[in-house]
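Box 3.1 A note on notation
Throughout this textbook, protein chains are presented in two layers. The first layer is the amino acid sequence; the second is a token string describing backbone geometry. Keep the layers aligned when reading.
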Amino acid sequence: MSERVRVMADYYAPRPLWSDGPLDSDFVVSPGLMRRLIEWCDEYTSWLKAEPTEARRRGWNEEGRALASELQDELGPSFDVEYFDDALGAYTAP
């Protein structure tokens, strides 16, 4: 059985990776991908101060899906990566 990993931004979350709760730094992802995931999550937090345009929100959602797909590729078949699609309000495959 595959281990589930979810990619979901949350306000002030240090990392956008979840399972039954937040995954901590013991969960290893390549440094470049982790940096991009954190930057993607930080942008979500920045929306508390300024609401993004609809176009930016769509672009951000597409970027998150691409990052989740890259994470699936990196982790391989022993993990089942799901992406929280902000527009749908639901988890989907990347």
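The chain has a mean pLDDT of 94. Helices lie at 31-46, 54-75.
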